[in-house]
Design goal:
It contains 16 helices and four strands. With about 425 residues, it is mainly alpha-helical. It has a four-stranded mixed sheet.
Amino acid sequence: MTSQFTLLFLAAFTLTLSARLWLTLRHIRFVSAHRTNVPGEFAERISLPAHQKAADYTVDRSKFSLQTTLVDAALLLALTLGGGLAWLHDFWTIRLDGLSYGLAIIFSVMFVSAIIDLPFSLYRQFIIEARHGFNRMSLGLFFSDLLKQSLIGLLIGTPVILAVLWLMTAMGNAWWFYVWLFWSAFNLLIMFIYPTWIAPLFNKFSPLEEGEMKTRIEALLARCGFRSSGLFVMDGSKRSSHGNAYFTGFGNNKRIVFFDTLLSRLAPTEVEAVLAHELGHFRKRHILQRIVLMFAVSLGFLWLLGQLIDATWFYNGLGVPAQNTALALVLFFLIIPVFTFPLAPLGSYLSRRNEFEADAYAAEHASAGDLVRALVKLYEDNASTLTPDPLHSLFYDSHPPAAQRIAHLQGAAQ
């Protein structure tokens, strides 16, 4: 059984890696082939230089993703069949035991992954983003953010990991269900405290100033029956020139946040239309659906891990001669993306369907024309390609291609 599982893992690994590389290469070729002409439906809205900038930005990011995909694949093999986890087990097992051993194993893998990712993050931010005019982050701010993220990860992650490992040991064969209950409660707690306790550690959130924009937004919220704990502007320009808007929190702790870069670019009616789209996600219960789906998927994964945790072939087949709860957790969540990659189009489809529904809601409660104009500006400002490869988009894009989305909105406006 051990050798059979090893072969199954290697087959899935090879197919997934090949598919990811092939899809990215397709995307690069497709975007490059359509670089010289703006799509007809955007010819009057997007200039050729802006279209070419988006194509170049997309190609640069895609080429970079080829490198990170290969490095991630090499790290996975190194940790499993290459003996990396086995070495970490040998290193820590003579120094620690019990929960402290499990914590050391998990944090060691996270540390190795972070160290390998660091130069890629620096290149992404200070070469690719800077080359295309998006980076506004200093090197000092980058490492300040990294330090804060690491400290928060340690402060929150340590008790969470210890609790999970304890539940796995103490709750018998049904441990996976108790871990799921704990994990679900923890995620709900993070969603609740993130807006007021964590996000302000990285950005400044200022109340939206009085004026036409705030008046329009408050009227829209009243029409849609939406209550929030405030309207805030985030200093997104501190790090990037990309623009965005989002909801955060839930219950009485919901906040509506606009990037300052978004407000500086869009007219009040266009901001209203963008917010109407975001409200559409709330009113159509997309956020609740995503939470329920996330909890259902996590329950399924934990149940599956519960069936594998005592199987010797699971560990040995992945190059680990020992078995315990910490190694089971690490191995399972390292390899699960290899086997679930074929399901990616389903997740993308569900997300794109929600985007169409939110657009339709926005067209009912604001102006479809204003939303079209806002989206075109955002496509241009964020250098989002108007010509993605259809198959690559099918796997990866959470939002519909620009042409499809604009066509639906124009139909709603008629």
